[in-house]
Amino acid sequence: MSRRNCLATLGVGSLGMMMPGVARAEEATGKWSEKSITDYTQRLFDWLKANFERRATTLQSVGGKEFKLEYDYLAPSDDKKRQRTFERFAEGRLSDKDTEEHVKACLAEFERVRQALAAAEMVASAVWKNGEGEAAAKEGRIFDSTITAARLTVVLDSSPSMKPYVEALRTEITRDFSAAYFVEVNGCQLTRPAVVPWFYAAPVQDVNPFTPDRHIPKIPVFEDLPHSTFIRWTRDAPAALNCMVDLMKTDAIYWFCDFDDPDRDGVIVEFGKKLLAQKAKLYAHTLDKKVPTLLATLAERSGGQVVRKKI
User: Fold this and answer.
1) Partners of 155 in the beta sheet?
2) What pLDDT sits at residue 288?
3) Which among 2, 54, 108, 142 is most buried, taking Cβ atoms within 10 Å?
4) pLDDT of residue 132
5) Quick one: how far is CA 145 from the chain centroid?
């Protein structure tokens, strides 16, 4: 599919179909441009490279086995033609045909490397042993709330309206909880079940870091519209919340957002069951908006609380 066909497919109406609620939300992104398609495709590539590097490091530091990421097309090269292809892609100056060939080549190489990583992780997972022991709980304060947690995880709404507050939240939380684990999600929509919990996961103490549920199961292909796929990952708030429970094994979640996006009771209930079963607390922080009733009830039942505080 050419970039022109991508643009035709991704008008305002179809964008809303592919990312439910986005076109109707107050902070809708509107139409895809050639620049934004290139930008988000490259963001996917950058995320994959960083993710693979972290996994290779974990294989060596935790698994005791060196793993070399063997790239060919994506490796540094003296080939002037290849260099120009990468440069022109970044500048949005490749033809439709060359763009498709370039993106397909990158995705195919990432999938080859992913498969090699997954094979090495399968071996490491089978022999993994927990030698670190459980983290100790500590008490600290976040604004006016006193929180006790051994493994505090933080989900920050980084949508345009909330982005200005993110650094202040990080500073406040790390003052007493320096080891807190942070993820950022573009929005807080809770209308569909979690799709990509692994996107928000990282190695965590006394948890096997090599199990398949913690990692991307397959690289998108060109026909999946990788730019659109990646932006959906960054907006999957249910995935972030479920990841904190299922993969990060949290005992307290601090969720900061504006609660401006739609939600469905079924999605909240599914997450709530996991949260309560793990005896984890939920702290839902909003600046001034009302937290959905079911979420407020969940926060209270979990032993956490709703926080309404301007920053």
Assistant:
1) 183, 255
2) 87
3) 142
4) 65
5) 27
How big, in percent rounded to 5, are the helix, strand and coil portions of the chain? Answer: 50, 10, 40
What does the pLDDT read at residue 30? 57
> Is-contact 215 248, C-beta < 8 A?
no
Element at 301 (helix H, strand E):
helix 293-302
Q: Which amino acid appears at position 222 of this protein?
A: F
pLDDT, mean of residues 22-43: 70
Full set of structural domains in the chain with CATH:
3-127 (no CATH), 138-195+236-308 (3.40.50)
* Residues with Cβ within 8 Å of residue 112, at least 6 apart in sequence: none
Q: What is the pLDDT of residue 18?
A: 31
Lowest mean pLDDT among 28-37, 79-88, 94-103, 270-279: 28-37
Asked if residue 228 lies in contact with residue 183, where contact means CB atoms within 8 angstroms, the answer is no
| 8 A C-beta contact, residue 70 and residue 113 | yes
**Structure tokens, 1:** 């599919």
Length of the chain: 311
The fraction of the chain above a pLDDT of 90, given in percent, is 84
Residue with tokens 């739609």: 262
Alpha carbons 113 and 74: distance in angstroms, whole number: 11
List CB contacts of 185: < 8 A, sequence separation 6 or more: 155, 156, 157, 158, 200, 234, 235, 236, 237, 240, 257
Q: How many helices (H) and strands (E) are present in the chain, helices listed first?
A: 10, 7
